[in-house]
Specification:
heterodimer; A: alpha/beta; Udp-n-acetylmuramoylalanyl-d-glutamate--2,6- Diaminopimelate Ligase, Chain: A, domain 1; 5 helices; globular; B: alpha/beta; TIM Barrel; seven-stranded mixed sheet; 11 strands
Amino acid sequence: MELRQVIAAIGLTALVGADLAREVRDGYCSDLLSDVLAHAKAGDLWITHQRHLNVIAVAKLRDVAGIVFPRRLRPSPDVVARAQAEGVNLLLAEGTAFEVAGKLYRVLHP
Amino acid sequence: MRWWRADLHIHSTLSPCASLAMSPARIVAEAHRAGLDLIAICDHNAAEAGRYVRRLAGAAPAVLMGMEIQTAEEVEILAYFTDEESPLLLQEELQASLPDIPCDPELFGDQVVVDEREEIVRRVDRLLLSPVDLPLSTVVRRIEDRGGLAVPAHVDRVPGGLLAVLGLFPEGEWPLAVEIAPWTPVAAATASWPGLGTRPILRGSDAHYPEEIGRAWTELYLAAPTLDELRAALRGEGGRRVRPGPELKEEW
C-alpha cells in the first residue's frame, strides 16, 4: 500500500513527506537502533520513540518506508532537516505506539 | 612511565541497584585487594559518593570523581573529573531534570551517601535510575565544558550501551574512547561494531557488589594515575597507551 493511503487510513500527519508514493510493505516497532539495523526490512514503516539524529541514518541503511513518532513526540529541527536532505519520510501520530501498530497491522493485513 | 591498573566503573551505595555494602571503606579495601592503582566512582546520575572514597583512599588508589549519566535517548555515559566542584554542580543540573519518581527502596534499593566513617550522611529521595531530560549531545557538552572526560559505558550492551541503543557512532569526533562490557571479548566487539576498532577501548568492572571490584580492568601506560594522563593516553601522546584487560568468562 502506498504511504499516502496508509497516512489517510490510520490518521498520521506527514512532518516530512519526502516520498508519499513509497510502498509500505510491513511495519516494525523498536527503540533500539541496533535492533532495527539487524531486523527491520526494506519497506517497513518504523514506529519508534527514539529521536536521536541517528534514526535518519538507520532509516536510510534499512531503506524503511518512513519513521512514525507516536504520542505526539516531535523530533528536533536537526532531525527534520536531515530527513529532508536525505529524503526520509517522517510521520507523527496522536496515539501510542501500540495503537499505531494495531491500526497499521489491520490496514496491511485486512 | 609504567603500567597502572584501573577500574573506572564502580558503583557505590548511592546507586539503588548497588549493594549497601559498597561503602567507601569497603570500596577502598576491595581496590587494594584487586591491586588497583586508579578507580572512579560512577553512580547513576550522581557524583557525590566519590568525595568520601577519595578522602579515605588518600593516594592509593587514586580516585577520580565520576558519574554514569543516562541521557534522554537512554544511552549511558561515564563522566570523569579531577576536581570535586564540577561534577557536583553537574549532578545538581542533572538531578533537576530527572523525572519526579520517588525511589521505593523495596523495588529499586536504597540511595544513600555513606561517608568515610561508615555513617549515612544523606538519603536521595528521587529515583536516580532514570534518564535525565537532556539529549546525548547536551550531556557530552556539559561534561566537557566543565573539564570532564565523557566515555560511553559498555557500548555493546543492552540496556544503555551507545552502539546498542543508537546503532552507530554519532557524527563527529566524540567519543575519544569507549568502554566495553566486562564479558565482551575485544575481538568480538570490534567485529560486531563498525568504528569501534579505531578508538581506544577501556574495560571496567561495572561493580555493584564488593567482590566485583576489579573483576575487569584496563591497564594504562602513564607517568601518573591522573585524568590528564589518561586523556593523553587516549590520544596516544608521548608513548602513553591503554590496554583493556581480559573479558570475564561468563555474564554475571
